[in-house]
Amino acid sequence: MESPDSKSDKSPPPTHKLETEQSEPEPKKLKMSTTTTSDDEDTSTATAAPETNKKQRYKRRKIAIFFAYCGVGYQGMQKNPGAKTIESDLEEALFLSGAVPEQDRNNPKRYDWARSARTDKGVSAVGQVVSGRFYIDPPGLVERLNSNLSSQIRIFGYKRVTASFNAKKFCDRRRYVYLIPVFALDPSSHPDRESVLASLGSGNELVKCLECSERGRKVVGLMGRRIFESKGTVESGITSSSGDAIEESNIKEESRAYLENGENHKFTSESMEEAKVVDDSRASEIAAVEAEIPAQNEDTVEKVNLQEGAKGGGFFYGEKERESFNRILKYYVGTHNFHNFTTRTKAEDPAAQRFIVSFNANTTVTVQGMEFVKCEVVGQSFMLHQIRKMIGLAVAIMRDCAPESLIEKALQKDVNINVPTAPEVGLYLEECFFTSYNQKWKDSHEEVSMKAYEEEAEDFKMKHIYSHIASTEHKEGAVALWLHSLNNRNYPDLRVVVGNEDTSDGRCSEMENAVE
Predict the structure, then answer these.
(1) What average pLDDT score do residues 379-395 get?
(2) pLDDT over threshold 60, residue 173
(3) Residue 42: alpha-carbon gap to chain centroid
(4) What CATH fold (topology level) applies to the domain 60-171?
């Protein structure tokens, strides 16, 4: 038999139950990042323990790390055996900083490593994100990481994330920026070599382009190694538009002869003859901007002039040019098959289908006295060289080397076109977005975004990335060299027939025929 006392023990007090039901639960505390310690982190014993036992007593935490880097000298972001990469340097810094134990060194799968974007060789980033399970204690992980990294890589901070978070899978969109010099959009700036030779002795001499046009010949190997067999076999020379091999020494002698004889070869392109008029209001704006530009030394000024070449009436990125460039870039927006804008991906491969959210070029920036157009593209994901090829074809169209309709043709599944690839130096990853994740976990976790690091990121961008892009163009003329190779001889696919209309009578063809 059960005693009365036992029965009373089994029934809970009614008043206590009512109080529990009426009381509201306390709101969840956000899992904070950086130097703060969470409630579930027990570090009191670890602090007093010997140095060798600290890593064992601390708990690993799933975090998203925000950082930036200048890609010069690196073979891209992704780790590649035998190559210097951003990822290999970062993994080593994590180990040296105590975030990764000895047994997990060089084994990123053990700490659930993931990256938001895989940038190519020479490409930089301002808002790159990686995730993994790391030891974030004792406080000061960011400082320890930066002390073990070169000045080209800068850690901004980290955020605590859910155990299932993956920087690659949870990234909704990525925003890239390509800085293209304004002179690259000017059809009369840095034409091909034949046009340079034809201009000697005329009022529109391009003497300063002689050297860079010669170095910029794609078939010599500087701008790429692809040689079109249909144009003739070339071993150690240069292929002419007729398919004959021309020795490089002959080209130099030809240049010297033009200079010595001073023959009056005139540039036949119509746009070189028509000077562009700058209105008074725009002229005053340009004068105001030039007044703010710091004085450059003599060498720098010389290289700016070399890169800009003969501008005629003074090309600038005005409203008309902005509308034209944005109209061209808008062709890429939406879901398309980008198999012509990458390598090693066939048209039948589902991976060739990509979605571009937006693509515009509304603003310009001036760095070290050189003006650049800021091309911003947002997409779900991008393939190898995709952005550089999209920029390459858009620039070719702006320079009248290809018809505007060629973009639509290049996006077709059953068409194969060799698309120009713009230099890697002007491209950088600006930000990765995690919109869906932030919406789902906003009540329990911090927002995964660059908002807290915007000021630091801007400083790094101006100091390391923008300055590198401008100085490289000043010293090496990467874009200028590329422009000299941007013609129908090196890219015969730019000469297309749309319906019954032959589009080979564009500006680049005129340049090639100038000396024939």
Answers:
(1) 97
(2) yes
(3) 42
(4) Alpha-Beta Plaits (3.30.70)
- What DSSP element (H or E) covers 84? none
Residue 374 · residue 179 · CB < 8 Å: yes
Report domain 176-191+316-433+453-495's class.
alpha beta
* Cα–Cα distance for residue pair 302/466, rounded to 1 Å: 20
Q: Which of 31, 103, 97, 95 is nearest to 64 (CA)?
A: 31
Mode of pairing for the β-strands spanning 124-135 and 427-433: parallel
Tokens encoding 322:
């902005």
Q: What six digits make up the tokens of 395?
A: 């620039």
| Sequence-separated (6 or more) residues with CB below 8 Å from residue 178 | 375, 377, 387, 388, 391, 422, 426, 427
- Nearby residues of 275 by Cβ (< 8 Å), 6 or more positions away: 312, 313
280 tagged catalytic:
no
Residue 295 DSSP class:
P
What residue has token string 């899978």? 169
Mean pLDDT to the nearest integer, 272-276: 31
Q: What are the C-alpha distances in Å from 200 to residues 49, 480, 515?
A: 79, 19, 11
Beta bridge partners of 134: 61
Q: Compute and round to an integer the Cα radius of gyration of the chain.
A: 29
Residue from 89, 104, 120, 137 carrying the catalytic annotation: 120
Q: What percent of the chain has pLDDT over 90?
A: 55
As given in the structure block, the two tokens for residue 2 are: 């059960």
- What are the extents of the domains in the chain? 60-171, 176-191+316-433+453-495
Over the stretch 192-225, which tens digit does the pLDDT of each residue have?
Answer: 666 666 666 565 545 556 556 555 443 333 333 3
Task: Give kind and range of the element (H or E) at residue 498.
Answer: strand 497-498
Give the model's pLDDT for residue 511.
Answer: 43
d(CA 392, CA 329): 11
DSSP-based three-state secondary structure for 128: strand
60-171 and 176-191+316-433+453-495 agree in CATH topology = yes
